[in-house]
Amino acid sequence: MHTLAEIEGAIRASWGFDTADEDDGWTPGNPSRGQCDVTSLVLHDIFGGEILAADVFRNGQRAEAHMWNRLPGGMEVDLTRDQFRNGEVIGEPSVRQRPARFESEHPRYHRYEAYLVLARRVQERLSS
């Protein structure tokens, strides 16, 4: 069994441009940018619990959505919150149901494919 710190290290080392949400401003200097959805799914695979989502506001306007996890013991884990560097405010979260299946026709299916890449990389790092 791995510690949360070991899992966090494996996830952070596994992020890349190919796992970031496209057109979301990912850079090597801000590696958590655009990784929240896939990261929350990988953490959910490992720990279970709940996936949380909230709107993100910039200058009072909704700018995007953000996702993170609440572990079974109640602790919230957000490995990508540090992507917000311009005074963004994260709204009140709600619990999101994880889809039982991901259909290839879904307009965001490419994010499921990015999740599979991230999950494989994290598993390889944790296995070595």
Could you characterize what this model shows?
Helices cover 33% and strands 20% of the residues. The protein is of the alpha+beta class and 128 residues long. Strand 1 (50-58) and strand 2 (61-70) form a beta hairpin. The radius of gyration is 14 Å and the shape is globular. It starts with a helix and ends with a helix.
Quaternary structure:
single chain
SSE sequence, one letter per element? HHEEEEEH
Briefly note the structural class of the backbone.
Answer: alpha+beta
Number of domains: 1
Largest sheet: 5 strands, antiparallel
pLDDT averaged residue by residue: 94
Helix content: 25-40%
Number of strands: 5
Number of distinct helices: 3
* Uncertain stretches of 5 or more adjacent residues: none
Distance between the terminal alpha carbons, to the nearest Å? 13 Å
β-strand amount: 15-25%
Radius of gyration: 14 Å
CA-based shape: globular
What's the topology here?
Blueprint: H1 4-14, H2 36-47, E1 50-58, E2 61-70, E3 76-77, E4 89-90, E5 94-96, H3 109-127
Antiparallel strand pairs: 1-2, 1-4, 1-5, 2-3
Features:
single chain; 128 residues; alpha+beta; 5-stranded antiparallel beta sheet; 3 helices; globular
Short summary:
With 128 residues, the protein is of the alpha+beta class. The protein contains 3 helices and 5 strands; from the N terminus they run H-H-E-E-E-E-E-H.
